Amino acid sequence: MTRTVPRYPVYLFDIDGTLLDSAADICGAIQQVFADADCRPLTFEFLKGYIGRHLIDLFADLFPNYTPEQMDEWIAEYRRNYHARGHTLTRVYPGVTEALAALGGRKATATTKGTPSTRLILEQFGLLQFFDHVQGTDGFPSKPAPDVIHAALAGLGATPEECLFVGDSAADMEAGRSAGVKTCAVRYGYGKEADLAAHSPDYWISDLRELVGQAICLSHAGAQRSGARRAVK
Question: Quick one: which of 201, 136, 207 has its CA closest to 173?
Fold first, then answer.
């Protein structure tokens, strides 16, 4: 049975797989790196499993004998490919905008993306206005290390006890647990439920509007049904 999520003074959010369905652009940019290097193609489903982790994890798993310099070159190429795509295949998940607009408390990001690119993509999709602080992974270890969560809390002047961290991956849950914050796993993202469950999230949700409460979810569902009835008249 899903536990009702209480209100928190502070919320931290992962981006990819939590607020934005960005897998097509991320995986497409990675596939282009491997195509340019004449490597064997990798499937979308395989690559999707690495979203939320640093690219170095993917490259190290596939090419353990590559030098750090080669890894850095591929990461730089990925970033060029990713930005060149313009996020044209990325979408905001249903309910995210409504939930962020209705949710009280202070809000920040805690993502593997760098802070400048995080700010740009939030602005592009109309979400920047809902955040009090934007925090990416800038020169420190990425999730599952807790560093980005600590940095986000510092940016808000908040303590772990005040905070709920919302994410879609096992790395998110592990980072949150290590940082001493409460964790909320989303079921609609890229992480496998069994992997998330291994880190014992405090809460589970299937729609971000569940953070606000059932009223907004029911209101949205009612509006959809009403619209459907009007459409068939």
Answer: 201
